[in-house]
């Protein structure tokens, strides 16, 4: 029992990230922000860009953009489409080297 309590009492240190997607784990949203997110979920996707909601948490605005881009790409204007394409490219390029290394390791691992 004490070992179990000890395991759960260990605070894990996570590397800070500039990526708003991984910042989801940095903390909980306030009740006001959660209420605003309810409004977002209830809003017609075509009207999401016009929402004028103030958020306490700085993560929500970029998350809203990514939510729209991932789930309702047809609602993005030309500038937003370019912004989303650039983001996707940056994510891809930042991860391709690690992906290729993992792929090579898998090939070597499963060679006969």
From TrEMBL:
It comes from the Bacteria. One of its GO terms (molecular function) is single-stranded DNA 3'-5' DNA exonuclease activity. InterPro entries: Exonuc_1_C, RNaseH-like_sf. Pfam families: ExoI_C. One of its GO terms (biological process) is DNA repair. Gene3D superfamilies: 1.10.287.1240, Exonuclease ExoI, domain 3. PROSITE patterns: EXOI_C. Residues 16-112 form the ExoI C-terminal domain. This is Exodeoxyribonuclease I.
